[in-house]
């Protein structure tokens, strides 16, 4: 069985630059909204987040496994960010949604 999309949203994808201690837009070119989707693979019981810019080239700006031990939490405004364990390749990322989250 293949992966299925379990949720989808429009967001700006950001990656944390640890060296400069600041958030930077993911991908190349101008900052733009991306279609961010969470995929589930029922065979492996695994999840990943994929974001593609909502532009004609649909540049992939994030394709990251969601591993056990991920820290996820809301930030001020309409933002969420996560950080993963040191064993992972990707230290962290963030999403700034087009709409305010529901409580």
TrEMBL record:
Residues 81-90 have a biased composition (Polar residues). SMART domains: WH1. Residues 1-103 form the WH1 domain. Residues 81-103 are annotated as: Disordered. Coiled coil: none annotated. InterPro entries: PH-like_dom_sf, WH1/EVH1_dom. It comes from the Eukaryota. Pfam families: WH1. This is Vasodilator stimulated phosphoprotein. It comes from Homo sapiens. The gene is VASP.
